[in-house]
């Protein structure tokens, strides 16, 4: 069983942050916090509808949906990140994300509280993630957006099935 944060060397973190420079991000809300994913990983944004349950799946996998003939698993990020009580409302959406080809191009639905905006990095400098929590393993960097800090989610890490165990 894997727990905690996998160790990264400073070079690995610097390389991840460098790869993020100059990107645009789709920002979204999750338990009052601001997160973002590289806009190029977003296949589509869907309104919330309950997925078909899968027996004996991890608690954060809500089930599967049919996306134009393709079966796509759906992960609830609140549950995955061990945030507060999960409530589904009319702003709840499912982001259909695709990992990079280096990560086998996996596709998955990710339930978030609401989509906020597309954020251009502009002159903002992406900083390495800080701290030690279950969430930090999925965060590639931090970016100031107005008065808030947006955590940039690494989609390849989020969709790595080995992390589900």
From TrEMBL:
One of its GO terms (cellular component) is cytosol. Residues 22-164 form the CheW-like domain. It holds the Pfam family CheW. Keywords: Cytoplasm. One of its GO terms (biological process) is chemotaxis. It comes from the Bacteria. It is found in: Cytoplasm. InterPro entries: CheW, CheW-like_dom_sf, CheW-lke_dom. The keyword Cytoplasm applies. PANTHER family: CHEMOTAXIS PROTEIN CHEW, CHEMOTAXIS SENSOR HISTIDINE KINASE-RELATED. This is Chemotaxis protein CheW.
């Amino acid at each position: 069983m894997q727990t905690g944060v996998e160790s990264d060397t400073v070079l690995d973190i610097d390389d991840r942050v460098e790869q993020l420079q100059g990107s645009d991000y789709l920002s979204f809300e999750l338990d009052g916090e601001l997160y973002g994913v590289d806009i190029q990983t977003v296949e589509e944004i869907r309104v919330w509808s309950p997925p078909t349950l899968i027996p004996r799946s991890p608690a954060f996998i809500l089930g599967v949906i049919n996306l134009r003939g393709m079966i796509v698993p759906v992960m609830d990020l609140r549950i995955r990140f061990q945030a507060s009580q999960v409530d589904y409302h009319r702003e709840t959406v499912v982001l259909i994300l695709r990992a990079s080809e280096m990560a086998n191009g996996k596709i998955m639905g990710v339930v978030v509280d609401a989509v906020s905006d597309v954020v251009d990095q502009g002159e903002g400098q992406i900083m390495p993630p800080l701290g030690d929590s279950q969430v930090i393993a999925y965060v590639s960097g931090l970016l100031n957006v107005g008065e808030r800090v947006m955590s940039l989610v690494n989609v390849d890490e989020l969709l790595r099935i080995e992390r589900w165990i």
